[in-house]
Amino acid sequence: MTIRTTIRTIHVGVGGRGAWPVDVLGADPRFQPVALVDVVPETLARARERVGLPDSACFDDLQKALGAVDADALVICTPTRTHAAYCRAGFAAGKHVLVEKGMTLDWAEARALVGEAAEAKVCFCVSQNYRYNHEVRTLQRALATGRYGRPHLVDLIHHRHRPEPRTLTYPGAVVWDMSCHHFDNLVFLFGPVARATAVTHNAPWSPYEHDAGVSAILEFTSGPVCTYETTHQATLTEYRWLLQSERGALRTLGNSAWEWLPRGEIRQFAPSGPSEPVEPAPAFRSEQGVVDDWYRYMADGTEPGISGRNNLETLAVCEMVLRSAAQHRTIQRVELDA
Q: Is the pTM here over 0.70, yes or no?
């Protein structure tokens, strides 16, 4: 199903991460928010004022909103554990759906949701906004030039200081709710992961009931091997990428900037000269990239990398990592389709 008119949206969850769609779509002439759904009256009131809707456009239940207003699409920004139910309500009503990451918390359910969206003939996307970040787009464009060689060794490390578990109170939350961002970036850059070997862990001082750290080796079908680490328990926050090819190394400098260190002659392991800055990609808000691709999907059928179907490769990495940690063995991608 495609549409070419202004897209009328119902926003489910308008606090926290739900604030950005209200602001971005409310300012985009291609969209018209027509209803807001949230269980917190104060949150509804603030969102209503920002987007200029009347009290009658506010609801505490999605089914009430679906029955009261005419709409084309749902934007779902609720806790991840609730995503599947809200997506299915949208599919059943024939609405296009944009859901915050992660799509859901279960590999089999993710595959089922994608199938149900296809059966309903709606455009289903997952808001993996990190792939639109200035930093990631700069890297993607740099690699596309071929100048920096073909990366084989990739390090992606994200130590986070997040002392409040909030909604991350279920097994595997660090993967389904945080690593999914990192894995989506990696899949965007290098394609599907062929094999994953992982452990999860929890620091002695962790306030999290379940493991809030994960370490993994990810082997991509296209060749690169990634050393991956993230945790919510760090004292010092650290975020870094390092990619090494036959020609040298690319690494992050902070503030979305990258530097290039060309490799020396054969048998010379040190860089051959001073580092060089990498030309940055044009800057724009990452969530706007999500919205633009979702709109294009609805308007002319151009399927983006964040479609539900394509997002399965990202969730496949989540599933492989968690299976590997639980079963203490390497997991092959082909096992997930058995």
A: yes
